[in-house]
Automatic annotation (TrEMBL):
InterPro entries tied to this protein: Ig-like_fold, PKD_dom, PKD_dom_sf
Residue span(s) of domain PKD: 51-87
Protein name per its UniProtKB record: PKD domain-containing protein
């Protein structure tokens, strides 16, 4: 830290994205595991989330998670940038994820389910597919 109190070091953040392979219409949740700075208080640190599909959100202050729903099949790069008065940080490999969204076939019912254990750990999403008939 500079002796005059100037903030010259950008903040750091560590994050987790719960799912990187989803079906059209499903959501992923980004969780801030650790956000810190040598000068700025947590509430003064902004966390910019680019979901890669044209949507973005901010996590401010004590916010620790953000959920995002993907609507179009494709591949998206989700990135998190952390900033304070010292300026922005480039995203690192640890704060960048490649998300793949698969499309749903017309006339097919998909049921999605996942289990969560007592510690809050979510299992992999299971998909059951059934052809719809009249």
């Amino acid at each position: 830290m500079a002796s005059d109190g100037a903030d010259v070091t950008a903040p750091v953040g560590r994050y987790r994205l719960d799912f990187t392979k989803l079906w059209d219409g499903q959501s992923a949740t980004l969780t801030a595991l650790e956000v810190s700075d040598d000068v700025s208080a947590r509430q003064d640190i902004r966390q910019f989330v680019d979901w890669g599909d044209g949507d973005f959100t901010y996590l401010d202050g004590d916010e620790t998670s953000e959920r995002h729903q993907f609507f179009n099949p494709g591949s998206y790069t989700v990135t998190v940038r952390v900033t304070d008065r010292a300026g922005p940080v480039r995203p690192t490999a640890k704060n960048t994820w490649q998300v793949t969204i698969k499309g749903l076939k017309k006339g097919t019912l998909y049921a999605f389910y996942a289990a969560v254990d007592k510690d809050g750990n979510q299992s992999e999403v299971k998909v059951k597919k059934q052809k719809l008939t009249r």
